[in-house]
Please model this.
Amino acid sequence: MEEKNVTKISLSTFLLIIAIIAIIIMGVFIYNLNNEKTTEIQKISELQSQVNSLNGTINNLQEELSTISENINSNNSNENTSSDASETINSNSSNENTSSTKEYQISGIYYQKDALGDEPNYTFSSNNEVSYGSLWMCSGTYTISNNIIKINFTSAVDPDGNKANVTDFGVEKSVELTIIDNNTLKDNSDGFIYLK
Model:
């Protein structure tokens, strides 16, 4: 009987030792997991601060680009204004002896500046008729008043010769162009420049 108790005690002692070893191993494993989690949280915090820093840099660059763009637009409008003013001064000085202001007379073909490919163009004739297009053509009449060309399109024809409405081609029935000089026109709606 004593042998059985000794065996039972030693078996229970053995199981207790194994349980203690398992607890120690699990404790070390949990400790390592906790350290890895803390390290990952620190890395995430560092990455988030870098992202915030980059977002701030991007915002600063966008503000600088916006400022530069505004300056460029301001300079361009100032150049156009000074150009218009000098033309007005030149026009007024050359016409001091007469009471009328200079009105430009236009005729010929005006192509869109910096156009890529087969872009539409305006063709003005001396009998106040105008056409606009490249493959398809819109036709109409124009008048000039205070260096503003007012165009009224009345008909349109596609490349196959079929007649259509002007608006079917995405063209407004009425268009206004400003005459910069005899060789330069500016579309008042979209700002495109057309050169002779």
